[in-house]
Amino acid sequence: MDPGKPIEDQFLKLHPCLPLNTRIGIVGAGPGGLSAAYALAKLGYNNVTVLEKYHTVGGMCESVEIEGKIYDLGGQVLAANSAPVIFHLAKETGSEFEEMDSHKLALINSSTGKYQDIKVADDYVSVISLTLELQDRAKVSGRFGIHAVSEFASDLTPSYLEAHGFKCVPQSVAYGYTASGYGFVQDMPYAFVHEFTRTSMAGKIRRLKGGYTSLWQKIRESLPVEILCNTEVLAVRRNSVNVTVNAKDINGETKIFYFDKIIFTGAFPFNNRKTYLAAPSNSTDHCETGVMDIDQLEKEMFSKVETIDYYTTVLKIKGLEDIPMGFYYFGEYMNDPTTVGHPVAMQKFFSETDIFLFWSYGNSVDVKRAYCH
Ligand SMILES: Cc1cc2nc3c(=O)[nH]c(=O)nc-3n(C[C@H](O)[C@H](O)[C@H](O)COP(=O)(O)OP(=O)(O)OC[C@H]3O[C@@H](n4cnc5c(N)ncnc54)[C@H](O)[C@@H]3O)c2cc1C
User: Which residue, 77, 144, 208, 309, is most buried by CB atoms nearer than 10 A?
Assistant: First the structure.
């Protein structure tokens, strides 16, 4: 799909290429699974089933209620350029956004608790001309997203920027990128950082009123699609005619589903995937006998996928009630990928609370594996 054109117009031009009663199974009711179900329903498919292992939909865009307030634990921040589909879905379901411009962006010292604001605007201005130059080159490539600049911005970010006259990576770009869960800029080809800068740094940032999960729940209710929660897919077997899915429900009872087509979403556990900043696993590859039968081409393709282990910890901390609402970056851990396991950022979501969210990559086991050899 062309992200530059309204989604409504694009759907009008699409037509189903399979019979409308094709039995389609979707594994996972996170953003990927529900968006796929939404698109299939729009195209007129009438035999779609979504299988979700948890009791609720939304996947990693999960919101929880703590002491009467809704917190987003995963997906939270949205910029119009980075998530046109989410903005479209929000419009269709009547979901509202709130702006996060009252949220401070600051650098905090983990030992003293002292913080200083980050001058995001100044930092961003310094990369605007490079961003525009790359955007022009992307336009003529005829491709979208990272793919459009991958051929000429594939060098690692520090060396790419140095070659373009920068002394270092602008701080707010580096911190924004890392705190969004995309990894450390030192490890990333500039194409990725460019895509982040282009889509996320310009314009207002917003969050969904009532939390991200509320959007996915509304979509669930509006879709003419069967969505089975508490249904964990255990094994998928395909042959030239159909797909057999073995699952278990919340009581541990086995359920068997038959589909003509299957769509996987989320980080499905293929054994040969890699995890960012973790040592390569020595375990032998059990894909063929694992959750899914996988052919050689798929094996090769999925072995290129790198999963980022990024997670949120919620803490109730006494004595920091006066800290303003906002995002606080831990510079000492942000700048150094070898400190993986420590939190890179902290958020105070609401004023007058003592609830803080901390974001970290990997865990201490990964640190030892990756760096103690
Ligand atoms: C800490 C953190 C912060 C983030 N911040 C942002 C942000 O600010 N803005 C933003 O846009 N994005 C953010 N993201 C990313 C966003 O959450 C993901 O991009 C998005 O959730 C991916 O959607 P998905 O459907 O591909 O996968 P998931 O959200 O992982 O959904 C996959 C679903 O599949 C289900 N599933 C897995 N295995 C099985 C099985 N065997 N059987 C049945 N169901 C199964 C899972 O339970 C899950 O519901 C953040 C992510 C994290 C972790």
Answer: 208
